[in-house]
Design brief:
By secondary structure, the protein is an alpha+beta fold. Helices cover 55% and strands 13% of the residues. It has helices at 5-15, 20-27, 31-38, 46-55, 60-65, 97-119; strands spanning 75-82, 85-92. A two-stranded antiparallel sheet has the order 1-2. Helix 2 crosses helix 3. The relative contact order is 0.12.
């Protein structure tokens, strides 16, 4: 079904301290089926994948589409006012002074173009 399901299932189950039997009971399948899914011996149904995602309160796309053992980078945001314009910057990683300078240059160019267009 998906490349990460087996790894994610094992990771989520162990990090939440849920046994294979407990998870199987909550999904409505046999414990051996959970084991076989985790060991990538069989694929599960989409209905069971949805149940697993719901049990662990994650999206189905995260369960199936990415390795949950690797944390996502933190997104940093910063809101800056330029006169009557407010801009919110979002970046995975640190927002540097260079980023702010480039934004300021861009806004100044836009302002110059706007003033030029209004004077014509």
């Amino acid at each position: 079904m998906a490349e990460f399901l087996n790894k994610n299932l094992k990771f989520l189950r162990s990090s939440n301290k849920i046994s294979q039997q407990e998870l199987a009971d909550r999904i409505g399948i046999d414990r051996s089926t959970v084991s076989r899914i985790e060991n990538n011996e069989i694929e599960t149904t989409i209905d069971n994948a949805i149940k697993i995602a719901d049990i662990f309160n994650i999206s189905l796309s995260d369960l199936l589409g990415r390795d949950l053992r690797i944390p996502r980078p933190q997104t940093q945001t910063k809101t800056v006012k330029f006169g009557d314009v407010e801009v919110t910057l979002s970046k995975n990683g640190k927002i540097t002074d260079k980023d702010m300078l480039e934004l300021n240059q861009f806004l100044m160019q836009e302002r110059i173009l706007d003033e030029k267009n209004n004077s014509e």
